[in-house]
Write a structure and sequence with these properties.
single chain; alpha/beta; TIM Barrel; eight-stranded mixed sheet; 8 helices; 31% helix
C-alpha cells in the first residue's frame, strides 16, 4: 500500500446519510496518520443535503483539528446535460475545494451523449476541481472525451474507493479510467467517499487497481499534501482561512484611542 497522506472526499452526518461528525473524521484520520482531509458535503439539491447557508458558515471550522488539516468544500451535483451544478455561488468564497458528480436523484441516467455532455459541462466550469466516481456503471459515458477535456482544462479525475462496494460494477470502468489517465499523464485524486469515520483514508481497492495498471506515483495527488494545495492555490483559492485571525490582528494593533 502506498503512503497516502490525504483523503479528498469525505462526508459527515450533515449530508443526511452519513453517520460521523467532523471531529470524529479528523480523529480517525489522525489515527491513520493522514495529514489532510477534505469535507465535501453534498450540494443542496441532493435530498437530505444541507442548505446553502451551511457552506457559507464553513469559516467557523478550524483549519486544523487534532493535527489534521481540514479543507472545506462541496461535492456538487450535476443537474442537467449542460453540466450546470448546485454550487452555492453566494458562498463560493467559503469553498476551498469543489468537486462535481452524477447522482441519480439529481440527474437520472440518460443517453450516452446526454450523460457525457453533462460531465463535459461540469469540467468546463472553472470552479470545479475534480469529477467524482466516473466508474459508476449506471451512467453510459464517453470516457475518452471526458478525459481529453479534463486534460485540456487541468481538471482532476477521482478514483473512488467506495465505488468498488457501493456502486457495484464500477471495477472495469475504474481500471480503464486509471490506465487511460496513465497514458495521458492526467493526474488523479483519490477519495474514500467515507460516510462513516472508519473508512477515512481507506484506499484499499483503488490501490489494487493502480498496482494492476502500474500507475505512476507522480500522478497521484494524494501522496503529497503540497500537490493538492499547490493545485488549489494556483486556481486562486485561499486555503485554511480562519476568521479568528481578524480578531487577533485587531487586538494586536496599538490602541491609539484617546480617552478624555
Amino acid at each position: 500500500m502506498r503512503n497516502y497522506v490525504l483523503d479528498a472526499h469525505a462526508h459527515t452526518l450533515v449530508c443526511g446519510h452519513g453517520y460521523s461528525t467532523i471531529t470524529e473524521l479528523a480523529n480517525a484520520a489522525a489515527e491513520k496518520k493522514l495529514e489532510l482531509i477534505c469535507l465535501t458535503e453534498h450540494g443542496p439539491e441532493l435530498p437530505g443535503a444541507p442548505e446553502p447557508v451551511f457552506f457559507g458558515n464553513y469559516r467557523i471550522i478550524p483549519g486544523l483539528i487534532n493535527n489534521v488539516k481540514i479543507l472545506k468544500g462541496i461535492e456538487s451535483n450535476i443537474l442537467d446535460d449542460q453540466g450546470n451544478t448546485d454550487i452555492p455561488m453566494n458562498y463560493i468564497q467559503a469553498l476551498e475545494i469543489i468537486s462535481a458528480s452524477l447522482h441519480t436523484p439529481t440527474f437520472k441516467p440518460k443517453s450516452k451523449n446526454e450523460n457525457t455532455s453533462a460531465v463535459l459541462g461540469a469540467i468546463a466550469n472553472p470552479h470545479v476541481d475534480f469529477i467524482c466516481h466516473l466508474g459508476n456503471p449506471q451512467y453510459d459515458l464517453d470516457y475518452e472525451a471526458i478525459l481529453q477535456d479534463a486534460k485540456k482544462t487541468n481538471t482532476l479525475i477521482e478514483i473512488n474507493n467506495a465505488s468498488f462496494f457501493v456502486r457495484r460494477g464500477s471495477k472495469p470502468n475504474c481500471e480503464w479510467i486509471a490506465n487511460r489517465c496513465k497514458e495521458l499523464e492526467l493526474p488523479i485524486i483519490i477519495g474514500s467517499d467515507t460516510h462513516f469515520a472508519t473508512d477515512i483514508g481507506d484506499f484499499t481497492y483503488v490501490d489494487k487497481v493502480l498496482n494492476a495498471v502500474d500507475f505512476p506515483d507522480e500522478l497521484i495527488i494524494n501522496l503529497e499534501t503540497k500537490r493538492l494545495t499547490d493545485y488549489l492555490e494556483a486556481k486562486g483559492r485561499v486555503l485554511f482561512k480562519d476568521p479568528r485571525q481578524y480578531a487577533e490582528d485587531l487586538f494586536s494593533q496599538k490602541d491609539e484611542t484617546v480617552v478624555k
